[in-house]
Amino acid sequence: MQDTSKMIFVFGSNRSGIHGAGAARFAAVHKGAEYGVGEGPTGACYALPTKGYNITPITLDEVNVHVQNFIAYAREHDHQDFQVTQVGCGLGGFTKEEIAPLFEFAPSNCYFDTAWKRHMPEGTMFWGTYG
To answer: Residue 49: in which H helix or E strand, if any?
Structure first.
């Protein structure tokens, strides 16, 4: 199991950067995510939009664009490890069966919530406890 205290915390956000609930609130309170930053690096985090401006729904295709932006960022920052939460699977309104496959080509410095284990390719790295 990976030491998550040193990892960049990747959370589902909204484009407005209103980090009011769920993993986004945790990111703001405990990991330095800045209000108003809805996408990209912020504090010891990476905000990955799964909701639009003013917390409106967005499509799975739009989420995929943001996932691909994150994957490109993670590749460019291969000296860092990323703790990817179940982005979009809580307040985002998507299922793990919809979201997890979007990360199929994530680099090896990305570690995923074990709840996604059966939805991810062989060789994927995980954090947390599997149950």
So the answer is: strand 45-51
Rounded to whole angstroms, the Cα distance separating 100 from 110 reads 12
Closest alpha carbon to 48 in 67, 31, 64: 67
Write the CB contacts of 45 (distance below 8 Å, at least 6 apart in sequence).
Answer: 8, 9, 10, 11, 27, 31, 32, 33
Which run of H or E residues covers position 97? helix 96-99
Please give the order of strands across the beta sheet that includes 125-127. Answer: 40-42, 45-51, 8-14, 82-84, 110-113, 125-127
Q: What is the pLDDT of residues 119-130, one digit of tens each?
A: 999 999 999 755
Identify the CA nearest to 66 among candidates 80, 49, 53, 79.
Answer: 49
Confidence class of residue 5 from pLDDT cuts 50, 70 and 90? Answer: confident
Q: What is the pTM of this model?
A: 0.94
Query: CA-CA distance, 66 to 55, in Å (whole number)?
Result: 15
Q: What percent of the chain is modeled with pLDDT above 90?
A: 92
